[in-house]
Design brief:
single chain; elongated
Length: 213
């Protein structure tokens, strides 16, 4: 698929950053590293286990229920981010100071990044799923790996959702301040840019001289 490998690489990077775990524990890892990975997996298991217990179903069924809830939340979040992108884009079309314009551009870029993160929450996940065809693994070992994979994905998606939601809240607050700032400039009649003011003054002066002649 087009760009599939690139998106998988980005996906694995995000998962590694947010979970603190590699995709697979290398065979060359030291005992200290393996103990560190096991401790991290225990933290992930303890954090996501209440979600599974509350649903009273298997890890697989509970995981898909959690994914469905996160899909709905991510869709609503993506809608809000789209509105904020449109709002900041509209502000760029108003006559204002260059400082406000650059702040709007910055927020516009940040909201686009958040939109990409929200889209990841809707991504179908299968690139690191354990396969039955792996050799030297019993059915019980594969079942444990599948459950571990589900737990990691649930942990990753909940972390990514909270991260996206928190930054969206902060940037929405900053956008509200920016809108008030724009409104204050319009209400007080402050010119957009001193350079524009100089150009308008020169044009008016030249027009007055032409009329006198």
């Amino acid at each position: 698929m087009l760009l599939d490998k690139e998106f998988v690489a980005i996906d694995r990077f995000l998962r590694r950053v947010l979970t603190g775990l590699p995709e697979t524990v290398p065979d060359t890892a030291s005992e200290q590293q393996k103990a560190k990975y096991k401790a991290r997996e225990k933290i992930i298991r303890d954090e996501v286990q209440p979600h599974f217990d509350a649903r009273g179903s298997s890890v697989t069924e509970a995981s898909f229920q959690i994914f469905a809830v996160l899909d709905g939340k991510a869709s609503a979040l993506l809608t809000h981010i789209s509105v904020m992108i449109a709002a900041n884009a509209l502000l760029l079309g108003t006559k204002s100071s260059s400082t406000l314009d650059w702040l709007s551009v910055g927020l516009l870029f940040l909201f686009v990044v958040l939109a990409l993160l929200a889209l990841r929450l809707l991504r179908f996940w299968a690139d690191n799923f354990p396969t039955v065809g792996e050799k030297f693994k019993t059915g019980n070992q594969l079942a444990q790996e599948v459950e571990r994979s589900f737990r990691k994905e649930v942990f990753f998606r909940t972390k990514l959702y909270r991260l996206t939601l928190n930054f969206t809240s902060v940037f929405t607050f900053l956008s509200a301040i920016l809108i008030i700032w724009y409104g204050a400039e319009l209400a007080t009649g402050v010119d957009a840019d001193p350079h524009d003011c100089v150009e308008q003054t020169e044009k008016c002066s030249q027009g007055a001289i032409t009329q006198k002649q």
